[in-house]
């Protein structure tokens, strides 16, 4: 997969790209990330990328005549058609299903907007999809672009060490709810013991315990997920009986 990131702050990406799964996916040749400095496409000697909003108002707007040539240049770098994603708090909310879909693409272009946003004509001319990573506003699209990159890259086959671990994630196809708690050694710490069943070696009981713990956690923290379509159509999650049983205790 080729991912091109267009940003005014390319230096922000080096830490994230140089560590952990993103580093490994690149080393394994599964992922190529090219961070492109939007400033290169800026206007004039000062490489200006933004201007005042027409109609007034606070902040600055990224110029259409900077952003469009930059994205077109990025598109021309690869024969593969690109899926174009604009990072924006006005976008559709990112979720795991969308990440799975994006992981099927061979070429993504992520545009990290800054200032008050990007001139609307850039979307009109280039199309693409606006992505929001949550109902809050960040200073720019760089961190959202890193979020998209990380969430998608780990779903590329071979990116994770253990192929099972993505299947068992929260929000995965196999488990569209939250995961329950995890434990490791020591089995007792300051009087807090690991649930006995996890030490039992009884795989079926452990799996049942984990499903129930996931249901409980979801019911407590994200009840919206239990009523959503994804959970009602989910494959064998142990069914509502698990959580109902849990609540009666
Ligand atoms: N830019 C600023 N805030 C954002 C958000 N929540 N999601 C995506 N891009 C953003």
Explain the overall architecture:
The chain is an alpha/beta fold and 249 residues long. It folds into 2 domains: 2-153, Alpha/beta knot (3-Layer(aba) Sandwich), CATH 3.40.1280.10; 177-232, tRNA(m1g37)methyltransferase, domain 2 (Trp Operon Repressor, Chain A). 37% of the residues lie in helices and 16% in strands. The protein contains 11 helices and 9 strands. The strands form 3 sheets. The protein has a 5-stranded parallel sheet with strand order 2-1-6-5-7, with helices on both faces. Helix 4 links the parallel strand 5 and strand 6 (107-112). It binds adenine. The site of adenine (ADE) has 13 residues, from strand 5 and strand 7.
Q: How many domains make up the coordinates?
A: 2
What molecules are bound to this protein?
A: adenine
CATH class of the largest domain equals Alpha Beta
Count of DSSP-assigned helices:
11
CATH fold type of the largest domain: Alpha/beta knot
CATH superfamily of the largest domain: SPOUT methyltransferase, trefoil knot domain
Do you know the CATH architecture of the largest domain? 3-Layer(aba) Sandwich
Provide the spatial order of strands within the biggest beta sheet. 2-1-6-5-7
What proportion of the residues form beta strands (DSSP E)? 15-25%
């Amino acid at each position: 997969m080729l991912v091109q990131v267009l940003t005014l702050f390319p230096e922000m990406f080096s830490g994230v790209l140089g560590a952990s799964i993103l580093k490994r996916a690149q080393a394994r040749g599964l992922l190529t990330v090219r961070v492109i400095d939007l400033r290169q496409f800026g206007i004039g000697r000062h490489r200006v990328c933004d201007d005042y909003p027409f109609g007034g108002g606070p902040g600055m707007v990224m110029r259409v005549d900077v952003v469009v040539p930059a994205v077109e240049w990025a598109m021309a770098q690869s024969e593969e058609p690109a899926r174009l994603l604009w990072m924006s708090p006005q976008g559709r909310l990112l979720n795991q299903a969308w990440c799975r879909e994006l992981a099927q693409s061979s070429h993504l272009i992520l545009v990290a907007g800054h200032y008050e946003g990007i001139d609307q004509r850039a979307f009109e001319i280039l199309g693409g999809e606006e992505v929001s990573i949550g109902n809050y506003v960040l200073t720019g699209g760089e961190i959202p672009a890193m979020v998209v990159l990380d969430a998608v890259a780990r779903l590329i086959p071979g990116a994770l060490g253990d192929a099972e671990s993505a299947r068992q994630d929260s929000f995965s196809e196999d488990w569209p709810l939250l995961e329950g708690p995890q434990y490791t050694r020591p089995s007792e710490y300051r009087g807090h013991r690991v649930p006995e069943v996890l030490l039992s070696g009884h795989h079926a009981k452990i799996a049942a315990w984990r499903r129930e713990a996931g249901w409980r956690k979801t019911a407590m923290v994200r009840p919206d997920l239990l009523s959503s379509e994804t959970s009602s159509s989910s494959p064998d999650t142990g069914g509502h009986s698990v959580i109902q049983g849990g609540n009666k205790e």
